[in-house]
Amino acid sequence: MLRTNLSAVSEFIFIGFSTFPHLQLMFFLLFLLMYLFTLLGNLLIMTTIWAERGLHTPMYLFLCALSISEILYTFAIIPRMLADLLSAHRSIAFAACASQMFFSFTFGFTHSFLLTVMGYDRYVAICHPLHYNVLMSPRGCACLVAWSWAGGLVMGLVVTTAIFHLTFCGPNEIHHFACHMPPLLKLACGTNVPAVAKGVGLVCITALLGCCLLILLSYAAIVAAILRIPSAEGGHRAFSTCASHLTVVVVHYGFASVIYLKSKGPQSLEGDTLMDVAYTVLTPFLSPIIFSLRNKELRNTMKKTFLSRLYPEKI
After folding, report:
1. Domain boundaries along the sequence of the chain
2. Which terminus of the chain has a lower count of CB atoms within 10 Å, N or C?
3. Helix/strand number for the chain, H first, E second
């Protein structure tokens, strides 16, 4: 249980956008459009995959699970952020802040774990094609998805419990637009804060770097296997199935490294806010675009599925 009775603070106040008083309406419209596009793009991907039996393969089922985690991750942060952009009083209750942190970390790490699973799927498909149906059986795929969600849940519980077992004596102004870990740690008081900060940071960085390392190892083996393919066309066809996943991985971990591995020296509030917004809003916005444009089979199926319903006489 959260030790809310030991904290003098009963609510927090977000001041992440307070340095942009004249741009908040523009930010609201921009972020709202990007958020709606993110929802629409992921819903289109999920609908297409579930409607077309030809896409009921491990790669697309993992993509469907990824879209679900992305929708839930953005839902945990962006609606509240949009409301605060139009509000003069940007306070959030102690328990609500803890809930937001729990869900954002749960779905954020689930997203990372699913990207790792998708890398493993491509590794098996290209490096061990004869064993693919055995290694990627429906039961095996369900287990991989379940373990990804369970891992995200554990990470959310560990981080949230560790942070909100600290005592918050005041002040209560969070230099962010969400209940983010680093600014909350700056508000905590007590002799155990440095130890908790190092422990939680180590757990998060270990999990993220572990996922990144597994993906890199998968693609190292994939590249080695592709180089052994005698025909250039065959190698290109094999690697094209990985292009969308690899692009999303680069975007996801590229923005994450800027946010979590940046220098701990003096930073401007404006710079921190804009970088964190890029990771929270822009990365989910780009993901469905990348999967739709870089995956020819998915793109053609989406056109066929939705055009046949809009213009059945032309299909």
Report:
1. 4-314
2. N
3. 12, 5
In sign, the C-alpha dihedral spanning 141, 143, 144, 148 is positive
Residue 315 burial by CB count (10 A; 0-12/13-18/19+): exposed, middle or buried? exposed
DSSP state of 16: T
Q: What's residue 3's pLDDT?
A: 47
> In 3-state terms, what secondary structure has residue 195?
helix
69: CB partners within 8 A, 6+ apart:
107, 110, 111, 114, 149, 152
pLDDT at 269 over 80: no
Residue 9, helix vs strand vs coil: coil
Give the pLDDT of residue 22: 84
Instruction: Assign domain 4-314 to a CATH class.
Output: mainly alpha
The per-residue pLDDT for 4 is 45
Q: How far apart are CA 120 and CA 145, in angstroms?
A: 12
The SS3 call for residue 52 is coil
| Distance of alpha carbon 42 from alpha carbon 194, whole angstroms | 39
75: closest CA among 115, 114, 107, 27? 107
Q: List residues bridging with 14 in a β-sheet.
A: 174
Say if CB 176 and CB 79 are below 8 A apart.
no
The pLDDT of 189-197, averaged and rounded, is: 88
CA gap 287, 135 in Å, rounded: 27
Strand 167-168 and strand 188-189: the pairing is antiparallel
Sign of the alpha-carbon dihedral angle for 181, 182, 183, 185: positive
**Mean pLDDT of the residues in the chain:** 85
Q: Which residue has the higher pLDDT, 255 or 290?
A: 290
**Residue 267 clears pLDDT 80, i.e. is over it:** no
Residue 72 clears pLDDT 70, i.e. is over it: yes
* pLDDT attached to residue 255: 77
